[in-house]
Amino acid sequence: MFQARNVTKVFGLPAGRAREILDEAEDRSRAITAAGGVLAVDDVSFDVAQGELFVIMGLSGSGKSTLIRMVNRLVEPTAGQIYYDGTDIAAMGEAQLRELRNKRLSMVFQHFALFPHRTIRDNAAYGLKTRGVPRHERLERADQALHQVGLGQWGDAYPEELSGGMQQRVGLARALATDPEVLIMDEPFSALDPLNRRAMQEQLLELQSTFRKTILFVTHDLNEAMRLGDRIMVLRGGTVVQLGTGPQIIAQPADEYVHDFVSDVDRSRALTAGSIMTEPWLTATVDDDAASVLEKLDRTPAKGLYILDQDHRVVGVASGEALSRAAADGERDLRRCLDTDYAWVAEGTSLARCCHLTGGDVVPLAVLDADKHLLGVVPKTEMLRAIATQEEGD
Ligand SMILES: Nc1ncnc2c1ncn2[C@@H]1O[C@H](COP(=O)(O)OP(=O)(O)OP(=O)(O)O)[C@@H](O)[C@H]1O
Q1: Which terminal CB of the chain, N or C, has fewer other CB atoms within 10 Å?
Q2: Which residues constitute the domain of residue 185?
Q3: Binding site membership of 251 for ligand 1 (Cβ less than 6 Å)
Q4: How far apart are the first and last CA of the chain?
Q5: pTM of the predicted model as reported, rounded to 2 decimal places
Protein backbone atom coordinates (compact mmCIF):
# COMPACT_ATOMS: atom_id res chain seq x y z
CA MET A 1 0.00 0.00 0.00
CA PHE A 2 2.79 2.41 1.02
CA GLN A 3 6.35 2.28 -0.08
CA ALA A 4 8.87 4.75 1.23
CA ARG A 5 12.19 4.76 -0.57
CA ASN A 6 15.26 6.54 0.79
CA VAL A 7 13.10 9.30 2.22
CA THR A 8 15.15 12.15 3.62
CA LYS A 9 14.23 15.50 5.15
CA VAL A 10 16.54 18.37 5.88
CA PHE A 11 15.13 21.45 7.59
CA GLY A 12 16.73 24.85 7.37
CA LEU A 13 18.55 24.51 4.04
CA PRO A 14 17.36 24.83 0.43
CA ALA A 15 16.59 21.31 -0.86
CA GLY A 16 19.17 21.52 -3.69
CA ARG A 17 21.96 22.59 -1.35
CA ALA A 18 20.96 19.91 1.18
CA ARG A 19 21.06 17.21 -1.51
CA GLU A 20 24.52 18.30 -2.63
CA ILE A 21 25.83 18.03 0.91
CA LEU A 22 24.14 14.66 1.46
CA ASP A 23 25.60 13.26 -1.76
CA GLU A 24 29.14 14.15 -0.81
CA ALA A 25 29.27 13.86 2.96
CA GLU A 26 30.66 10.92 4.88
CA ASP A 27 28.88 11.87 8.06
CA ARG A 28 25.62 13.22 6.68
CA SER A 29 24.13 14.47 9.92
CA ARG A 30 27.27 16.33 10.94
CA ALA A 31 27.69 17.90 7.50
CA ILE A 32 24.09 19.12 7.46
CA THR A 33 24.43 20.51 10.98
CA ALA A 34 27.69 22.26 10.03
CA ALA A 35 25.87 23.93 7.13
CA GLY A 36 23.17 25.17 9.52
CA GLY A 37 20.47 22.60 8.80
CA VAL A 38 18.80 19.73 10.65
CA LEU A 39 18.78 16.21 9.22
CA ALA A 40 15.41 15.14 10.65
CA VAL A 41 14.89 11.98 8.56
CA ASP A 42 17.77 10.22 6.86
CA ASP A 43 17.40 7.65 4.08
CA VAL A 44 14.37 5.82 5.45
CA SER A 45 12.77 3.00 3.45
CA PHE A 46 9.85 0.80 4.42
CA ASP A 47 6.76 -0.87 3.00
CA VAL A 48 3.38 -0.97 4.67
CA ALA A 49 0.92 -3.65 3.56
CA GLN A 50 -2.80 -3.12 3.23
CA GLY A 51 -4.51 -3.80 6.56
CA GLU A 52 -1.26 -3.61 8.50
CA LEU A 53 -0.91 -1.72 11.77
CA PHE A 54 2.57 -0.31 11.28
CA VAL A 55 4.17 1.40 14.26
CA ILE A 56 6.86 4.05 13.98
CA MET A 57 8.64 4.25 17.29
CA GLY A 58 11.41 6.41 18.65
CA LEU A 59 12.26 8.96 21.29
CA SER A 60 11.49 12.63 21.00
CA GLY A 61 13.32 14.17 18.07
CA SER A 62 13.92 10.87 16.28
CA GLY A 63 12.00 12.05 13.23
CA LYS A 64 8.65 10.25 13.64
CA SER A 65 6.40 13.25 13.09
CA THR A 66 8.44 14.55 10.20
CA LEU A 67 8.26 11.15 8.55
CA ILE A 68 4.49 10.79 8.74
CA ARG A 69 3.99 14.37 7.67
CA MET A 70 5.84 13.48 4.50
CA VAL A 71 3.37 10.64 3.93
CA ASN A 72 0.55 13.12 3.36
CA ARG A 73 2.90 15.78 2.05
CA LEU A 74 2.38 18.26 4.83
CA VAL A 75 6.17 18.20 4.70
CA GLU A 76 8.01 17.90 1.36
CA PRO A 77 10.81 15.32 1.32
CA THR A 78 14.26 16.67 0.48
CA ALA A 79 15.03 13.40 -1.26
CA GLY A 80 13.41 10.00 -1.80
CA GLN A 81 9.95 8.88 -2.83
CA ILE A 82 6.77 7.79 -1.12
CA TYR A 83 4.42 5.67 -3.20
CA TYR A 84 0.79 5.25 -2.36
CA ASP A 85 -0.77 2.36 -4.25
CA GLY A 86 2.05 2.69 -6.75
CA THR A 87 1.73 6.45 -7.29
CA ASP A 88 4.54 8.75 -6.18
CA ILE A 89 2.96 11.22 -3.76
CA ALA A 90 5.44 13.91 -4.83
CA ALA A 91 4.17 13.64 -8.40
CA MET A 92 0.53 14.16 -7.43
CA GLY A 93 -1.16 17.31 -8.67
CA GLU A 94 -3.34 19.52 -6.49
CA ALA A 95 -6.55 17.60 -7.22
CA GLN A 96 -5.00 14.20 -6.62
CA LEU A 97 -3.40 15.38 -3.42
CA ARG A 98 -6.69 16.81 -2.19
CA GLU A 99 -8.40 13.52 -2.91
CA LEU A 100 -5.63 11.66 -1.06
CA ARG A 101 -5.94 13.85 2.02
CA ASN A 102 -9.72 14.09 1.99
CA LYS A 103 -10.86 10.67 0.99
CA ARG A 104 -8.08 8.21 1.55
CA LEU A 105 -6.09 9.34 4.57
CA SER A 106 -7.28 10.50 7.95
CA MET A 107 -5.17 11.74 10.84
CA VAL A 108 -5.61 11.45 14.60
CA PHE A 109 -3.38 13.60 16.78
CA GLN A 110 -2.42 13.67 20.43
CA HIS A 111 -3.98 17.08 20.89
CA PHE A 112 -6.88 17.99 18.75
CA ALA A 113 -9.54 20.54 19.39
CA LEU A 114 -13.18 19.69 19.89
CA PHE A 115 -15.53 22.58 19.22
CA PRO A 116 -16.88 23.35 22.70
CA HIS A 117 -20.23 24.72 21.55
CA ARG A 118 -21.02 21.87 19.20
CA THR A 119 -22.44 18.50 20.13
CA ILE A 120 -20.30 15.40 20.14
CA ARG A 121 -22.17 14.24 17.05
CA ASP A 122 -21.32 17.46 15.19
CA ASN A 123 -17.74 17.20 16.36
CA ALA A 124 -17.47 13.63 15.09
CA ALA A 125 -19.03 14.72 11.78
CA TYR A 126 -16.58 17.58 11.31
CA GLY A 127 -14.22 15.71 8.99
CA LEU A 128 -17.15 14.93 6.70
CA LYS A 129 -18.23 18.54 6.57
CA THR A 130 -14.86 19.62 5.25
CA ARG A 131 -15.21 16.83 2.70
CA GLY A 132 -18.54 18.17 1.46
CA VAL A 133 -20.79 15.30 2.61
CA PRO A 134 -24.48 16.33 2.97
CA ARG A 135 -25.62 17.04 6.53
CA HIS A 136 -28.02 14.15 6.90
CA GLU A 137 -25.42 11.59 5.82
CA ARG A 138 -22.75 13.29 7.94
CA LEU A 139 -24.73 12.87 11.12
CA GLU A 140 -25.65 9.30 10.34
CA ARG A 141 -22.02 8.36 9.72
CA ALA A 142 -20.92 10.29 12.81
CA ASP A 143 -23.41 8.31 14.92
CA GLN A 144 -22.10 5.08 13.49
CA ALA A 145 -18.50 6.04 14.25
CA LEU A 146 -19.41 7.16 17.78
CA HIS A 147 -21.04 3.80 18.28
CA GLN A 148 -17.87 2.05 17.07
CA VAL A 149 -15.76 3.81 19.70
CA GLY A 150 -18.26 3.15 22.49
CA LEU A 151 -19.79 6.63 22.60
CA GLY A 152 -23.11 5.77 20.94
CA GLN A 153 -25.07 7.37 23.77
CA TRP A 154 -23.14 10.64 23.79
CA GLY A 155 -24.05 12.20 20.46
CA ASP A 156 -26.17 14.96 22.00
CA ALA A 157 -23.67 15.79 24.76
CA TYR A 158 -21.12 18.61 24.67
CA PRO A 159 -17.34 18.20 24.99
CA GLU A 160 -17.18 19.58 28.54
CA GLU A 161 -19.36 16.67 29.69
CA LEU A 162 -16.77 14.14 28.52
CA SER A 163 -13.57 12.98 30.23
CA GLY A 164 -10.22 13.35 28.47
CA GLY A 165 -10.29 9.71 27.42
CA MET A 166 -13.76 10.06 25.96
CA GLN A 167 -12.76 13.21 24.10
CA GLN A 168 -9.90 11.32 22.53
CA ARG A 169 -12.40 8.70 21.40
CA VAL A 170 -14.30 11.47 19.63
CA GLY A 171 -11.08 12.22 17.75
CA LEU A 172 -10.91 8.60 16.67
CA ALA A 173 -14.59 8.63 15.73
CA ARG A 174 -14.01 11.76 13.66
CA ALA A 175 -11.32 9.95 11.70
CA LEU A 176 -13.34 6.74 11.37
CA ALA A 177 -16.45 8.58 10.17
CA THR A 178 -14.63 9.54 7.00
CA ASP A 179 -14.02 5.83 6.35
CA PRO A 180 -10.43 6.39 5.22
CA GLU A 181 -8.24 3.74 3.63
CA VAL A 182 -5.38 4.75 5.89
CA LEU A 183 -5.39 6.10 9.42
CA ILE A 184 -2.37 8.10 10.46
CA MET A 185 -2.17 8.29 14.23
CA ASP A 186 0.47 10.57 15.74
CA GLU A 187 0.88 9.75 19.45
CA PRO A 188 -2.92 9.63 19.73
CA PHE A 189 -3.02 8.22 23.26
CA SER A 190 0.05 9.87 24.77
CA ALA A 191 -1.86 12.49 26.75
CA LEU A 192 -4.11 9.91 28.42
CA ASP A 193 -3.65 8.38 31.85
CA PRO A 194 -2.50 4.73 31.85
CA LEU A 195 -5.96 3.21 32.32
CA ASN A 196 -7.61 5.23 29.58
CA ARG A 197 -4.63 4.64 27.38
CA ARG A 198 -4.90 0.91 27.83
CA ALA A 199 -8.63 1.04 27.12
CA MET A 200 -8.04 2.99 23.91
CA GLN A 201 -5.38 0.53 22.78
CA GLU A 202 -7.78 -2.33 23.31
CA GLN A 203 -10.49 -0.49 21.47
CA LEU A 204 -8.21 0.17 18.54
CA LEU A 205 -7.24 -3.52 18.38
CA GLU A 206 -10.89 -4.50 18.49
CA LEU A 207 -11.78 -2.08 15.71
CA GLN A 208 -8.80 -3.30 13.76
CA SER A 209 -9.86 -6.93 14.04
CA THR A 210 -13.12 -5.96 12.32
CA PHE A 211 -12.11 -3.25 9.84
CA ARG A 212 -8.47 -4.06 9.06
CA LYS A 213 -7.51 -0.51 8.12
CA THR A 214 -4.01 0.33 7.13
CA ILE A 215 -2.71 2.27 10.13
CA LEU A 216 0.50 4.22 10.59
CA PHE A 217 0.82 4.65 14.33
CA VAL A 218 3.47 6.84 15.92
CA THR A 219 4.50 6.35 19.52
CA HIS A 220 7.50 6.75 21.81
CA ASP A 221 6.23 3.98 24.09
CA LEU A 222 7.62 0.55 23.32
CA ASN A 223 4.96 -1.29 25.35
CA GLU A 224 2.31 0.44 23.26
CA ALA A 225 4.23 -0.39 20.10
CA MET A 226 4.48 -4.05 21.11
CA ARG A 227 0.82 -4.29 22.03
CA LEU A 228 -0.45 -2.72 18.83
CA GLY A 229 2.03 -3.16 16.03
CA ASP A 230 1.97 -5.89 13.44
CA ARG A 231 5.45 -4.54 12.76
CA ILE A 232 7.49 -1.84 14.43
CA MET A 233 10.06 0.46 12.89
CA VAL A 234 12.46 1.89 15.45
CA LEU A 235 13.90 5.30 14.55
CA ARG A 236 16.88 6.99 16.10
CA GLY A 237 18.34 10.28 14.95
CA GLY A 238 16.21 10.10 11.79
CA THR A 239 17.44 6.67 10.68
CA VAL A 240 15.91 3.21 10.94
CA VAL A 241 17.61 1.19 13.65
CA GLN A 242 15.38 -1.86 13.35
CA LEU A 243 12.22 -3.00 11.60
CA GLY A 244 10.43 -6.18 12.60
CA THR A 245 7.64 -7.73 14.63
CA GLY A 246 7.60 -7.06 18.38
CA PRO A 247 8.80 -10.55 19.28
CA GLN A 248 11.59 -10.34 16.68
CA ILE A 249 12.79 -7.05 18.14
CA ILE A 250 12.71 -8.39 21.69
CA ALA A 251 14.45 -11.61 20.75
CA GLN A 252 17.15 -9.94 18.64
CA PRO A 253 17.53 -6.25 19.38
CA ALA A 254 19.63 -4.75 16.59
CA ASP A 255 21.93 -2.79 18.89
CA GLU A 256 22.49 -1.50 22.41
CA TYR A 257 19.97 1.27 21.89
CA VAL A 258 17.13 -1.09 21.07
CA HIS A 259 18.34 -3.52 23.72
CA ASP A 260 18.02 -0.80 26.37
CA PHE A 261 14.59 0.04 25.07
CA VAL A 262 13.30 -3.52 25.22
CA SER A 263 14.70 -4.23 28.67
CA ASP A 264 11.70 -2.41 30.15
CA VAL A 265 9.10 -4.19 28.11
CA ASP A 266 6.54 -6.51 29.65
CA ARG A 267 7.86 -9.56 27.88
CA SER A 268 5.08 -11.88 28.98
CA ARG A 269 2.62 -9.77 26.99
CA ALA A 270 4.88 -8.79 24.13
CA LEU A 271 6.22 -12.23 23.33
CA THR A 272 4.05 -14.83 21.65
CA ALA A 273 3.97 -18.61 21.63
CA GLY A 274 4.99 -18.55 17.97
CA SER A 275 8.08 -16.47 18.70
CA ILE A 276 9.59 -18.94 21.17
CA MET A 277 8.16 -22.30 20.16
CA THR A 278 10.55 -25.16 19.52
CA GLU A 279 10.39 -28.56 17.84
CA PRO A 280 9.02 -31.28 20.11
CA TRP A 281 11.59 -33.92 21.05
CA LEU A 282 9.42 -36.65 19.70
CA THR A 283 6.10 -37.19 17.94
CA ALA A 284 4.46 -40.31 16.57
CA THR A 285 1.65 -41.02 14.17
CA VAL A 286 -1.52 -42.94 14.98
CA ASP A 287 -0.35 -45.90 12.93
CA ASP A 288 2.81 -46.40 14.96
CA ASP A 289 3.15 -49.33 17.28
CA ALA A 290 2.72 -48.50 21.01
CA ALA A 291 5.69 -50.56 22.19
CA SER A 292 8.13 -49.07 19.71
CA VAL A 293 6.92 -45.55 20.49
CA LEU A 294 7.48 -46.26 24.19
CA GLU A 295 10.98 -47.45 23.43
CA LYS A 296 11.78 -44.21 21.61
CA LEU A 297 10.19 -42.14 24.36
CA ASP A 298 12.32 -43.85 26.98
CA ARG A 299 15.40 -42.59 25.20
CA THR A 300 14.32 -38.96 25.73
CA PRO A 301 13.66 -37.06 28.97
CA ALA A 302 10.01 -36.47 27.80
CA LYS A 303 7.10 -37.85 29.82
CA GLY A 304 4.75 -38.04 26.87
CA LEU A 305 4.33 -37.05 23.24
CA TYR A 306 1.88 -35.69 20.70
CA ILE A 307 0.32 -38.19 18.34
CA LEU A 308 -0.37 -36.89 14.85
CA ASP A 309 -2.36 -38.06 11.86
CA GLN A 310 -0.78 -38.44 8.43
CA ASP A 311 -1.29 -34.72 7.74
CA HIS A 312 0.64 -33.67 10.84
CA ARG A 313 -2.55 -32.73 12.70
CA VAL A 314 -2.69 -33.46 16.41
CA VAL A 315 -5.12 -36.19 17.39
CA GLY A 316 -4.09 -36.46 21.03
CA VAL A 317 -1.39 -36.98 23.62
CA ALA A 318 0.08 -40.25 24.83
CA SER A 319 1.81 -40.33 28.21
CA GLY A 320 4.70 -42.67 28.93
CA GLU A 321 2.53 -44.25 31.61
CA ALA A 322 -0.35 -44.96 29.21
CA LEU A 323 2.10 -46.37 26.69
CA SER A 324 3.68 -48.65 29.33
CA ARG A 325 0.29 -49.96 30.32
CA ALA A 326 -0.62 -50.57 26.71
CA ALA A 327 2.67 -52.30 26.04
CA ALA A 328 2.23 -54.50 29.16
CA ASP A 329 -1.26 -55.50 27.97
CA GLY A 330 0.10 -56.40 24.56
CA GLU A 331 -1.94 -53.54 23.06
CA ARG A 332 -0.37 -52.37 19.83
CA ASP A 333 -2.85 -49.73 18.74
CA LEU A 334 -1.79 -46.22 19.75
CA ARG A 335 -5.31 -44.89 19.39
CA ARG A 336 -6.28 -46.75 22.54
CA CYS A 337 -3.89 -44.89 24.77
CA LEU A 338 -4.59 -41.40 23.47
CA ASP A 339 -5.76 -38.56 25.63
CA THR A 340 -7.58 -35.96 23.53
CA ASP A 341 -7.78 -33.44 26.34
CA TYR A 342 -4.64 -31.32 25.97
CA ALA A 343 -3.87 -27.62 26.11
CA TRP A 344 -2.98 -25.75 22.95
CA VAL A 345 -2.62 -22.17 21.74
CA ALA A 346 -2.39 -20.27 18.46
CA GLU A 347 0.91 -18.75 17.30
CA GLY A 348 -0.10 -15.22 18.33
CA THR A 349 -1.00 -16.10 21.93
CA SER A 350 0.91 -14.07 24.52
CA LEU A 351 3.18 -15.88 26.95
CA ALA A 352 1.12 -14.43 29.80
CA ARG A 353 -1.82 -16.47 28.52
CA CYS A 354 0.38 -19.51 27.86
CA CYS A 355 1.45 -19.44 31.53
CA HIS A 356 -2.17 -19.86 32.55
CA LEU A 357 -2.58 -22.89 30.34
CA THR A 358 0.60 -24.65 31.35
CA GLY A 359 0.17 -27.07 34.19
CA GLY A 360 1.51 -30.46 35.17
CA ASP A 361 0.96 -31.93 31.72
CA VAL A 362 3.18 -34.67 30.35
CA VAL A 363 3.76 -32.65 27.17
CA PRO A 364 4.65 -28.98 26.66
CA LEU A 365 1.92 -26.64 25.44
CA ALA A 366 1.16 -27.24 21.75
CA VAL A 367 1.10 -24.43 19.18
CA LEU A 368 -1.47 -25.30 16.51
CA ASP A 369 -2.81 -23.59 13.42
CA ALA A 370 -6.52 -23.39 12.67
CA ASP A 371 -6.49 -26.92 11.20
CA LYS A 372 -4.75 -28.30 14.27
CA HIS A 373 -1.42 -28.83 12.53
CA LEU A 374 1.36 -28.96 15.09
CA LEU A 375 3.59 -25.92 14.54
CA GLY A 376 5.72 -26.39 17.64
CA VAL A 377 5.67 -26.62 21.40
CA VAL A 378 6.32 -24.16 24.23
CA PRO A 379 8.24 -25.89 27.02
CA LYS A 380 7.98 -24.30 30.45
CA THR A 381 11.73 -23.69 30.63
CA GLU A 382 11.67 -21.80 27.31
CA MET A 383 8.79 -19.72 28.55
CA LEU A 384 10.58 -18.74 31.76
CA ARG A 385 13.78 -18.02 29.89
CA ALA A 386 11.93 -15.78 27.46
CA ILE A 387 10.03 -13.89 30.15
CA ALA A 388 13.00 -13.40 32.47
CA THR A 389 14.59 -10.04 31.81
CA GLN A 390 18.22 -10.25 30.93
CA GLU A 391 20.24 -8.60 33.65
CA GLU A 392 23.28 -6.62 32.72
CA GLY A 393 26.34 -8.78 32.27
CA ASP A 394 24.32 -11.84 31.22
N1 LIG B 1 10.14 22.67 11.01
C2 LIG B 1 11.32 22.28 11.51
N3 LIG B 1 12.41 23.05 11.37
C4 LIG B 1 13.59 22.68 11.85
N5 LIG B 1 13.80 21.51 12.51
C6 LIG B 1 12.76 20.70 12.68
C7 LIG B 1 11.46 21.04 12.21
N8 LIG B 1 10.61 20.02 12.54
C9 LIG B 1 11.36 19.12 13.18
N10 LIG B 1 12.63 19.52 13.28
C11 LIG B 1 13.74 18.77 13.89
O12 LIG B 1 13.81 17.52 13.24
C13 LIG B 1 14.10 16.49 14.19
C14 LIG B 1 12.99 15.45 14.17
O15 LIG B 1 11.80 16.00 14.69
P16 LIG B 1 10.41 15.27 14.77
O17 LIG B 1 9.41 16.23 15.34
O18 LIG B 1 10.10 14.65 13.47
O19 LIG B 1 10.71 14.10 15.80
P20 LIG B 1 9.72 13.25 16.64
O21 LIG B 1 10.35 11.92 16.77
O22 LIG B 1 8.37 13.31 16.07
O23 LIG B 1 9.73 13.98 18.03
P24 LIG B 1 8.52 14.28 19.03
O25 LIG B 1 8.13 12.95 19.60
O26 LIG B 1 9.13 15.20 20.04
O27 LIG B 1 7.46 14.93 18.21
C28 LIG B 1 14.27 17.17 15.52
O29 LIG B 1 15.64 17.43 15.69
C30 LIG B 1 13.52 18.46 15.37
O31 LIG B 1 14.03 19.46 16.20
Answers
A1: C
A2: 2-268
A3: no
A4: 41
A5: 0.79
